[in-house]
Design brief:
By secondary structure, this protein is an alpha+beta fold. The protein has 2 domains: about 170 residues, Aminopeptidase (3-Layer(aba) Sandwich), CATH 3.40.630; about 170 residues, 3-Layer(aba) Sandwich (Aminopeptidase), CATH 3.40.630. It is built from 11 helices and 16 strands. Pfam families: FemAB_like.
């Protein structure tokens, strides 16, 4: 098989494990078939997305992402697979283990390379262990751990995974770590139907939050900024080029080169255009900013991903990255908007806290014990943090009895 790299050996459970040096070594149809079996498949786990990261050079060995995709086979049939990378740094992951790496270094031990099961640069929860059935998923975890041992790696990390993956990892004695993201749901908990428009959405919030959002939106409008959106094939090459100009400039203004290059987004335009939604901000007839949203039409989920601006306008980021996408989601019947990693400020915009989970294995027994104790303390802190956030919910207390939506334009 083209691109096959390392081992191919028979397991006791009759699977053959093959470690592949590129996602393109796997037929897209076979990979996407496994993904389609998952309860909530993510566009970021599609073969085209992973292949674009690899083929554009964004996630290759020279950038610290050496692909070693683990696959399980019976004959010519793919039964399980996952995107695994050897990493010589911890950038682009969003589950931070720099302190672990520093502790290894202080004791004269090598933390890198480590094994990472994740979608590069993409902190979006989703299936990570694609499998035909629970048996294959469990076998895939065992194959990952065995590969890490065989390659004498310091550790194995599986990030932003779905519950079925976490269960399989936990059954193989991997340690769990929790982080918090902020997601918006179309319809307040007390409502049985989605919002009818943005004003309806605002009625679900406390008066102070409604007023703040209206003030922020008014600042952008008063600055003469308007928005246009385009989706899928309607996003022109010029639109993609303008977006990348904004995206790159915003990274550079913060002192960093962007993780993703122009070639990657060109590949997205050619192979996965239907999964993208672009908002462009204009002032005086000129585009000045843009935000790129990923969408999953089948699941009715949108994902806030990238943004950039050429001019500074007060509250423009909030409008481009939250209010415009939320209004679009309401208008088009999307059920969830995921705001990405970190950002407690998102809660004021009605993106509510959601616990995400990763799984970890460390080869060194003493460090594994120390990390396990750390994770117990950190987990208790995350629980307290979630309890504190629940007390600061931006949502109105649900009224008693049936609700009636009465539009109003000011508070």
């Amino acid at each position: 098989m083209k691109g096959q790299k390392v081992s191919a050996h028979q397991r006791a459970n009759d699977y053959v494990t093959r470690v592949l040096a590129s996602p393109t070594a796997i037929l897209a149809a076979a990979w996407n078939h496994l993904l389609a079996l998952e309860a909530d498949p993510s566009p970021f786990m599609r073969h085209g997305y992973l292949a674009a990261l690899h083929d554009s050079g964004c996630a290759q060995e020279h950038a610290g992402w050496q692909a070693q995709f683990i696959t399980l086979w019976r004959g010519d049939e793919l039964h399980a697979a996952c995107p695994m990378y050897l990493k010589n740094h911890s950038y682009g992951e969003y589950v931070f283990d720099w302190a672990w790496a520093n502790a290894y270094a202080q004791h004269g031990l090598d933390y890198y390379p480590k094994a990472l099961v994740a979608v590069p640069f993409t902190p979006v929860p989703g299936a990570r262990l694609l499998a035909r059935d629970p048996e294959a998923r469990a076998a895939l975890v065992r194959a990952l751990l065995q590969h890490a041992r065989d390659e004498d790696l310091s550790s194995l990390h599986l990030l932003f995974a779905h519950p079925q993956d976490i269960t399989a990892c936990e059954q193989n004695d991997m340690m769990l770590r929790h982080t918090v993201q902020f997601h918006w749901t179309n319809g307040a908990p007390a409502l049985s139907t989605p919002f009818t428009d943005f004003e309806h959405f605002l009625t679900s919030l406390q008066q102070e939050k409604r007023k703040k959002i209206r003030q922020e939106r008014r600042k952008v409008a008063d600055a003469g900024v308007t928005f246009q959106w385009s989706r899928g094939q309607d996003i022109t090459p010029a639109d993609w080029a303008f977006f990348y100009r904004c995206y790159e400039r915003t990274y550079l203004e913060h002192g960093n080169a962007p993780y993703l290059n122009r070639d990657f987004f060109q590949r997205m335009a050619h192979t996965m255009a239907d999964h993208w939604l672009l908002f462009v901000a204009e002032r005086a007839g000129r585009p000045i900013a843009s935000s790129l949203i990923a969408i999953d039409t089948d699941a009715r989920v949108a994902y806030g991903r990238y943004w950039g601006a050429l001019e500074r306008v007060d509250c423009l980021h909030f409008e481009a990255c939250y209010y415009q996408p939320l209004a679009w989601c309401i208008e088009h019947g999307f059920q969830r908007f995921e705001g990405g990693a970190q950002g407690e400020h998102k809660m004021a915009r009605a993106l509510l806290p959601v616990k995400t989970t990763s799984a970890h294995w460390l080869a060194h027994p003493s460090f594994a014990d120390a990390v396990e104790r750390f994770l117990e303390r950190e987990g208790a802190g995350i629980g307290q943090y979630l309890d504190d956030l629940a007390q600061r919910s931006p949502l109105r207390a649900p009224p008693h009895g049936p609700q009636t939506y009465i539009p109003h334009n000011s508070d």
